[in-house]
Design a protein that fits this description.
It contains four helices and seven strands. By secondary structure, it is an alpha+beta fold. Strands 1-2-3-4-5-7-6 form a seven-stranded mixed sheet. A hairpin with a 3-residue loop joins strand 6 and strand 7. It is globular, with a radius of gyration of 14 Å. Bound molecules: coenzyme A. Coenzyme A (COA) binds next to strand 4, helix 3, strand 5 and helix 4.
């Protein structure tokens, strides 16, 4: 089941984020983001246990995926793919919407997920991340 996140879900998002990234975002940061216009998040949960979430910022007919994380023990069950589809379905409201994101060039799991979900590489940023790791921009119009 996928539910919309409110600022009071910030702690849940922070816990999930910490399971998936070496530089975790604090609950306060999620709370601030979720109170900004155009920012929305959805949590995938089963029996009230949060499995993963997606956070996006939408402006007109474009939305940037700010982060996406699935708890390690819940991976490879289609959670991320369903979160992507759900996000597109909610945001597009009958009109085309362009979803885009930046991902570390060496993040094979995420790049494969996005490719399998119909995203294409549309840009590259050299040395964008700490340690000089490149980023690629990936885009799909739904
Ligand atoms: C990337 C991530 C969100 C994928 O979540 P997930 O719920 O496991 O993904 P799904 O089960 O929906 O996977 C869909 C497809 O993506 C691809 N994929 C997902 N994880 C993969 C991996 N580790 N290696 C290769 N392909 C992978 C597969 O094609 C998969 O389909 P399959 O399982 O039928 O082969 C998850 O691994 C994660 O949270 N990683 C750490 C955080 C991160 O990198 N976030 C993205 C930053 S932009």
């Amino acid at each position: 089941m996928i539910v919309g996140a409110m600022p009071q879900h910030a702690e849940v998002l922070a816990v999930l984020h910490k399971t998936s990234f070496t530089a975790p975002w604090q609950a306060k940061e999620f709370e601030t983001l979720l109170s900004q216009p155009g920012v929305a998040a959805w949590i995938s949960q089963q029996d009230d246990v949060p499995m993963g979430f997606i956070l996006v910022r939408a402006v007109a007919d474009e939305a940037e995926i700010l982060t996406l994380a699935v708890a390690p023990e819940q991976r490879r069950k289609g959670v991320a793919q369903r979160l992507l589809q759900h996000t597109a379905d909610i945001l597009r409201e009958g009109r085309p919407i362009r979803l885009f994101l930046e991902v570390a060039a060496d993040n094979i799991a995420a790049r494969t997920l996005y490719m399998r979900s119909g995203f294409a590489v549309t840009g590259e940023r050299k040395g964008y991340y700490a340690g000089g790791i490149d980023a690629v921009t990936m885009t799909r119009t739904f």
